[in-house]
């Protein structure tokens, strides 16, 4: 067993044990001169090479470990190693109340926190049998936040995907625009990420004053800036050369492997849960399902780009509807379910509202008792199970929520589209070049927080 | 507390004490416990335990909840320590199921009738607008294949499998829950398989739905359900040498007490909590 990095006898890596592999030679590559490695190969350069790429690698889209078997620069086999970001969120949710669950699941797919919250809240609402009672304004706000979130998520996908193939300008402008969306989130929910804002029964708080104007300004600005991406990328010969025909997966492959979202739509099938199985009143909005016919990375890029325009259309319609819903409730009327206090939203997130504290501490004993019971015990959810998927930026995201009639989830399992879609890595990249593996994975857009949960 | 709406009357009170007692001849008209063929005592064939509430809706008892405030023993001054309530899940639904549920069930039954497997479907539960087919585990691959390929069914998309652990549902502790989607007909169903903890084997469906590859590995990793026939059933989220299956109810959450300003807060699974 020879490693090219060993400088002197006795030096050892304190952070990693020597490899246990019993086959072949191990080369530890840590950024030194490549010549020293290729010379070290000597006569055995013909050997098949198994490369571990990641889990700490800037191009693997998170802590994803790729195990690639190479023949020259051609990938003959590709496998994923996942689990490096497993945080036991599902297990933790079983030890918290139903409302606290939103605080956990929002952290799964950290680029689409609202969709995580939404599918969980919809599942709990179905079990509570209050789907019809969720106020209209809460549903419109959910749609608004979901679509803004879709824009920010697609922006990150395009930005990091661009960065991974060396298109740094795409990265900088992508994150520039995403920042605008996060500013809106901060204005509305108090937090840029991990909001815990969509809760069973509605949303946590009404829109703050001036939010609609900000949203309209944002839409106007985005309408100017989104075409910049098209101008920069759509016909860019280098960009197209890297993306076209890479990561090909046709419709049959998508269905067999359970792929949904942009990869499925890039294969030409207009399957979008917002249209086919509408939730939160999506049937009332005017938008188109974007498809492409090339089933490759370029098609997925174009689908995402066009979906952002559609999302802007929906955001505009939400803003118009919200203008007519001023002062309407954003939480179910049932005080046994609705979180008791209207929280105040400050620069550091959601906090206690002084008015509410004055009310429960100084004015009403019943209000205090009620607040105490709901905050400490929470509400009970009738026994049963529900699965209400939503169309997240990456595809079908669903929470299988099981209740045993208690105050905590008996089981909450998230079917995360990143997890499922990542299975296509092998099919998409085997037989191609190493450099195309990066493109193929970027086109799946896996978020490891969602993959590993 | 009227939390558990479907139950609440006489027949369930003694269910709370344990397994449902055999129905005596005298009051069988009132308590139509579904008559299963006498179960052998092996954990293989424990039937679904069912009972009827006063309204005639069937429920499935999977456990018992005692007390109210999470305190046990002499520390319990709440007065609710003696409270005993069964944990009941919605049980088998009688026809008609309503809407397209009947079409799917008819098509499924028609196809099963052509085979030897007429008993493949243990029960059908319709609850909150979702339909669940409880399938006998040995028939699962056949049923799944049929659900995918039959023209009237066409559930071509599988959303994955999720495990659920019911430690008190004796003989049916581990459940594998599949969510299937028919894009052709725009329908969703749930298929559920229950296996005993002592023999946690479920046939793999990877050959029918390749997408289940990772999902089954995750369910093995988290619950210890062995999917027979899976091409490479290894852990996926936990390290390869991890002991135990973390999502099982008997697996502790873990954690350390948190000290704050002189006080100490126990880890979440050891705090007093409502149950």
UniProtKB/TrEMBL annotation, chain A:
Pfam families: Complex1_49kDa
Domain NADH-quinone oxidoreductase subunit D residues, every copy: 165-453
The keyword Membrane is assigned to this record: yes
Entry keywords, A to Z: Cell membrane, Membrane, NAD, Quinone, Translocase, Transport
Ranges for region Disordered: 1-23
EC number: 7.1.1.-
Cellular compartments per GO CC: plasma membrane
PROSITE patterns per UniProt: COMPLEX1_49K (PS00535)
MF annotations from Gene Ontology: NAD binding; NADH dehydrogenase (quinone) (non-electrogenic) activity; quinone binding
Places the protein is found: Cell membrane
Gene3D superfamilies: Cytochrome-c3 Hydrogenase, chain B
Topology in membrane: Peripheral membrane protein
Substrates-to-products reaction catalysed: a quinone + NADH + 5 H(+)(in) = a quinol + NAD(+) + 4 H(+)(out)
EC primary class: translocase
Keyword Metal-binding: no
Compositional bias ranges of the Polar residues kind: 1-11
Main location (coarse class): membrane
PANTHER family (alphabetical): NADH DEHYDROGENASE [UBIQUINONE] IRON-SULFUR PROTEIN 2, MITOCHONDRIAL, NADH-UBIQUINONE OXIDOREDUCTASE 49 KDA SUBUNIT
Function: NDH-1 shuttles electrons from NADH, via FMN and iron-sulfur (Fe-S) centers, to quinones in the respiratory chain. The immediate electron acceptor for the enzyme in this species is believed to be a menaquinone. Couples the redox reaction to proton translocation (for every two electrons transferred, four hydrogen ions are translocated across the cytoplasmic membrane), and thus conserves the redox energy in a proton gradient.
Summary of subunit composition and partner proteins: NDH-1 is composed of 14 different subunits. Subunits NuoB, C, D, E, F, and G constitute the peripheral sector of the complex.
Protein family according to the UniProt entry: Belongs to the complex I 49 kDa subunit family.
UniProt protein name: NADH-quinone oxidoreductase subunit D
Lineage: Bacteria, Bacillati, Actinomycetota, Actinomycetes, Propionibacteriales
The gene coding this protein: nuoD
